[in-house]
Design brief:
There is one protein chain. The protein is mostly beta strands. The chain is 7% helix and 42% strand. A 4-stranded antiparallel beta sheet has the order 1-30-29-28, with no helix packed on it. Strands 2-3-4-5 form a 4-stranded antiparallel beta sheet, with no helix packed on it. The two termini are 36 Å apart.
Length: 408
């Protein structure tokens, strides 16, 4: 075996190790792809996303529901002349039942799409019973049962007979002060955590008893890690952890030094992914950025926000929903379109140099004493010292005369 072959093998092995390590260390900048109405999305204001058993993505928009097969969008919207169309274009969430049917809450009730017939079946909710005929949120529980929320009730619908059973969760008379269950989430015990005008509440699925947990905390997002802890976000409240053993809450603030804005956020959505090396990270969308929280170290480790000089950065508008597709893609719904992040591309770190967006990089060298430091020369831009892990520029040498540098 030749010495050159051995050298090449060692180099390739070291390169592989570097790629694996780099994949576990989030880069300073992320590369996002974007879908808008120009790509076939029905409306740029995107919301909740699910993935069905066939691999289709279902995306809620202000124009109804879009189904994405990886190449094209199929739009499902209300047609006044078709009783088998979506009941209303005003939808908050969608869910798939055990038979592969897609359920949607709408402004006027429930809609169910049957993929075998290609038609919707609709249920209008009588205002006399439900106060308002609007379905607010639809969820498929861990045991396969389907639940939806209305103004002051949690409801389950039998998937065979379609009979609705309702649980009044507010003892007050049904009026404008009654509970509005905009968000509810299931924990590992099968109970529902929900947000209302009265604060953070818990609905026990066995006893049907509601317990008020915190009148000063709402609920916009929720993740149960299955290991005794739940993580939750709210509107202009701290990010929160709940310990099921001690029954205690712990609050965490965003790093105000890094973001120069409030230590609390409107956390619209959060998700934990099972991508290799990133299993302990929670990704959450706020009105300002895509924030990353490490559940092991219990601290925020990254903030990805809009940068006008980077065409691949996060959008200027706020995030509505964050979804992991179970493979390698993070999908982010915003008011300006649908963004995707491919985790297979995380080993690729991109550096940008202020003031020289279109200049070519002529040479790159690693510092002989500090391996975290890269020296980069830019055509007509001088020489930069860059931290290879954070992307921070630590030094910049720019001579008085403009002259291209061929080497260091």
């Amino acid at each position: 075996m030749s010495k050159n072959y051995c050298k090449v093998s060692v180099i390739l092995f070291l390169l592989l190790i570097c790629i694996v390590i780099q994949a576990q260390q989030l880069p300073a900048n992320l590369r996002f792809n974007k879908f808008t109405t120009e790509n076939g999305l029905s409306d740029n204001h995107a919301g909740t996303i699910i993935k069905d058993k066939k691999g289709y993505l279902w995306i809620v928009t202000q124009n109804g529901i879009d189904r994405f097969d990886g190449a094209e969008f199929k739009i499902f919207s209300h047609n006044p002349a078709d009783s088998n169309s979506l009941l209303s274009n005003s939808v908050n969430s969608v869910a798939e039942d055990s038979l592969g049917r897609i359920w949607a809450d709408t402004y006027y009730g429930l809609s169910m799409y049957n993929p075998n017939t290609g038609k919707f079946r609709n249920w209008s909710l009588p205002e006399k019973k439900f106060v308002k005929n609007r379905a607010l949120r639809v969820v498929v529980a861990h045991n396969g049962s389907l639940w939806f929320s209305t103004w002051n009730r949690l409801n389950t619908i039998d998937l065979q007979t379609f009979q609705i059973t309702s649980y009044l969760i507010d003892s007050m008379p049904p009026n404008i002060r009654a509970v509005s269950i905009d968000y509810f989430f299931e924990d590992h015990e099968g109970n529902f955590w929900f947000d209302s005008y009265h604060g953070l509440s818990l609905f026990n699925r066995k006893s049907h008893i509601v317990t008020m947990l915190d009148k000063n905390y709402g609920l916009s997002s929720f993740y149960d890690d299955g290991a005794g802890h739940a993580w939750m976000g709210s509107w202009q409240r701290p990010f929160r952890e709940y310990d099921f053993t001690t029954k205690k809450f712990t609050d965490y603030s965003f790093d105000n030094k890094n973001t120069n804005i409030s230590p609390v956020r409107n956390i619209a959505s959060l998700v934990c992914i099972n991508y290799p090396g990133l299993e302990n990270l929670l990704w959450m969308g706020t009105e300002q950025e895509l924030a990353v929280f490490d559940t092991k170290t219990k601290r925020f480790i990254n903030y990805y926000s809009y940068n006008p000089s980077l065409p691949i950065s996060m959008p200027l508008t706020g995030i509505n929903y964050v979804f992991f597709d179970g493979r390698n893609q993070l999908w982010i719904s915003t008011n300006s379109g649908l963004y995707t992040l491919n985790f297979d591309q995380l080993p690729i770190n991109t550096f940008y140099f202020p003031g020289y967006p279109n200049r070519s990089v002529s040479r790159i060298r690693e510092d002989i004493k500090d391996t975290t430091l890269l020296w980069v020369t830019i055509a007509f831009g001088g020489m930069y010292g860059v931290n290879r892990y954070t992307g921070n520029i630590v030094q910049h040498f720019l001579p008085g005369t403009k002259k291209p540098y061929d080497d260091l």
